[in-house]
Amino acid sequence: MKKIILLSLFLVFAFANIATAQTKVSGIVLDKMNQPVPFANIVFKGSNTGIVSNEDGRFYLESPKTYTALLVTSAGFSDKEIPLEKTVNYNFKIVLSEAEALNEVVIFTGKTSKKNNPALDILRKIWERKRKNGLYQFNQYQMQKYEKVEFDMNTIDSAFMKNKLFKGMEFVFNHVDTSDVTGKTYLPIFINESVYDVYGDNKLKKTKENITGSKTSGFNGNQQILSFVKDLYSDYNIYDNHLTFFDKSFTSPLSKTGIDVYNYVLKDSAYIDKKWCYNIVFYPRRKNELTFKGDFWVNDTTFAIKKINMGVTKSANINWVKDIYIEQEFDVENDSVFLLTRDYMMSDFALNKKEKSKGVYGKRTTLYRDHKFNIQKPEKFYKEEVNYIDNAVYDRPDEFWDENRFEKLNKDELGIYKMLDTLQTVKRFKQIYNLVSILGSGYVEFKNFDYGPIFSTFGYNEVEGLRVRVGGRTYFGPNDPWRIQAYTAYGFDDSKFKYGVSGKWMVDKKKRFIISGGNRRDIEQIGASLTTTNDILGRSFASSALFTTGSNGKLTNINLSNISFEMEPMKNFVVQAGLSYRTLESASPTFSLDYYTTLPTPANPAGVVASAVTQSEANIQFEFMPNRKTIGFGVERDLVDSPFSHFFVNFSYGLKGVFNSDFAYEKIQIYYKQPIIIGPLGRSNIILETGKTFGTIPLGLMSVIPGNQTYFTIENTFSNLNFYEFITDQYTTLQWNHDFGGRLFARIPFMRKLNWREFVGVKGVYGTISAANRAINASDQPYNAPENVYWEYNAGIGNIFKVFRIDFSWRGSYLNTPDANKFAVKGSFGFYF
């Protein structure tokens, strides 16, 4: 009975929406053969409000004003006027006729010409003036910015509302609304509002945003969701050649390379805000490429964009996203200055791209006002704060929002806050939220404590056999100033318990001065990576993979303790100094770390051999990550998943004699990673690692070139190498890998629908071993160094079933090494856009 009453209330609410809406139209555009007409231009007669049909000819158009007719135009067809007898008109079927050559002038059909096209003449004028328009005309600028981000479940129907999943939460359906872009019903589940003061200096090429207020409801405080939101809505400039969304590079319709990927048609001209403007429609020349379809209005004298609407084509090779719609509006500041005042972006996330599939809308509305120009600020003003903390920003009263919202929330939006706050008190919702949180973070949440990570619960190796691990961490909130983590593990073959415990405390929040320390006793595959840190709880996948391609018995018992001090003196530049103490001993009777403490002589041919290493070490490291974006300001932060450069340097010093330490040495390690986005050709990563140890050290302290004996891809390892196949005390590795993003397969007709993606790569290493280090080796492990450069290359196919990638790797050198792996196949799983 309760469900029936709520359903009745929803129907009343839905009919109320219909009664108050002015004009809504949806339908499909067809030709006389009943085939869809893609990219047709549909506008309300007597207005500039319009839309371009999608690849299936479908469209939805809405306006708060009342209109009585539609105008439908498309290259190669006669214009058609459709009378609107009602304010709400769904499922229109519009049939266009081919243009008659005798009395109509049709310049372009299908693929438009690159010659004698007036639309391209205008486009070239836009290129010439793009650096002279808008904010680029001024040395300095400042303004206010208001941003509203919302997530909504969409395609809400009666069957969806009756789902047992929503038992106890039926009241939320009173807030169902209709999208003015797609015409689908939706239900808000998250909303965030933020206000900023924005400053920029075109001479210094510096920008700065100061947040003055932020308000959130729905999943408040969830770091993963907030990180996803920040990554989803990265800033972009419509005039740039390429626009990056979801870590993919789309060709802008205003790009200089746009002529090669878009068709352009000059459709109309009219006055907009007393400015004469041209209307140009654009749509892609080929399917499966990262392109848009839509139209823009451009001024006839400044060639500045006045308004642009565009949506990602349905065939674009991007996962989990059915639609992306962008709308920007520019206001005329004076005769020659057009400024962006409204930016709207909507994404429709769904498991598939079928028209009726349910999903989630992600929407961002950004408004700008109060522009001021040529007010110079000192260069130090633009220096970004390391850890901006102002709790008052997140606790502004209602009066602040009444004054600082650029546009008032409508009645439905005001009700969202109350609905979402109420929803989070419902037991059923909490259960759903907790499940999503577990899958996203890997931890099961309890009060002030998280159990996990659950994905590390089981493992296997030849020494421990089946391995079970349990652990957890303190968690009072995403911005905790301190955190303690611990775990214990048990191997069923060696019948031994292992453990690790660590803690960290942020003493100074502004400079992020952090003290950390801990202890771990466990079995580890040392040499699983070249550039090492003293992370107490870090563990290589190589030590506990459930399935391997060969023996993984070359494991080491490690007892590691450390204390470190970390500071971030400037944004994304981290300095850390620490002390560590470790003991290393072979964990397997078939593997030895033995070394000579006294070399063999004629008088003592056996020499003196030791099996365990005791080592104290001091280290200092520098880490610089320009353009890295983070979420939160606690002792642990989440990263926004966007590409950034990474430069790391570590100096280590062996303290012989300290706590019975065995060796004195100096070690330097350098790591550099540079992502490169190459426009429509995809993205490359170049990674350089180099290091050298000065002094005499045993096998346990050498730099082992990391192999990979699992069936899965592990970053910064060599797929065709076994563990300990190459050992060095100085090394240099260089690797290049590239993701084409499906650009090549999109050109092959029978492969387009698969939406597979192409990967290629090559990596190599050069290294040597000093005579002194060779001399003290008493283990059964032969010392081989890649003095003639070892290299391998790979090619892969990704996006198989949207979650799987397979890589094929070939050995390029050292082909005659005993038991050499000349070919390897590795796989990986992941959710990628």
Biggest beta sheet summary: 18 strands, antiparallel
| Class by SSE composition | mainly beta
Compute the number of strand runs.
44
Shape: elongated
Supply Rg: 31 Å
Distance between the termini: 43 Å
Organism: Flavobacterium frigidimaris
InterPro entries: CarboxyPept-like_regulatory (IPR008969), DUF5686 (IPR043741)
Protein name: CarboxypepD_reg-like domain-containing protein
Pfam families: CarbopepD_reg_2, DUF5686
In short:
It holds the Pfam family DUF5686. The chain has 9 helices and 44 strands.
Structure description:
By secondary structure, the protein is mainly beta. It has an 18-stranded antiparallel beta sheet that branches. A hairpin with a 6-residue loop joins strand 9 (177-178) and strand 10. It is elongated. The relative contact order is 0.08. It holds the Pfam family DUF5686. Residues 1-21 form the signal peptide.
List the main descriptive attributes of the protein structure presented here.
11% helix, mainly beta, elongated, single chain, 44% strand, 833 residues, disordered N terminus, 18-stranded antiparallel sheet
Helices and strands in order:
Blueprint: H1 2-20, E1 23-30, E2 41-44, E3 50-52, E4 58-63, E5 69-73, E6 80-83, E7 88-95, H2 118-129, E8 140-154, H3 158-161, E9 177-178, E10 185-201, E11 206-217, H4 223-232, E12 242-245, E13 248-251, H5 258-261, E14 262-272, E15 275-284, E16 292-299, E17 305-312, E18 321-334, E19 337-350, E20 359-373, H6 398-404, H7 411-423, H8 427-441, E21 444-446, E22 449-451, E23 458-461, E24 465-474, E25 482-491, E26 496-508, E27 513-524, E28 556-570, E29 573-586, E30 595-598, E31 608-610, E32 613-624, E33 630-631, E34 638-639, E35 646-654, E36 666-677, E37 683-694, E38 703-704, E39 727-728, E40 730-739, E41 757-768, H9 771-775, E42 790-800, E43 804-811, E44 823-829
Parallel strand pairs: 1-7
Antiparallel strand pairs: 1-4, 2-3, 2-5, 5-6, 8-10, 8-20, 9-10, 10-11, 12-13, 14-15, 15-16, 16-17, 17-18, 18-19, 19-20, 21-22, 22-24, 23-24, 24-25, 25-26, 26-27, 27-28, 28-29, 29-32, 30-31, 32-35, 33-34, 35-36, 36-37, 37-40, 38-39, 40-41, 41-42, 42-43, 43-44
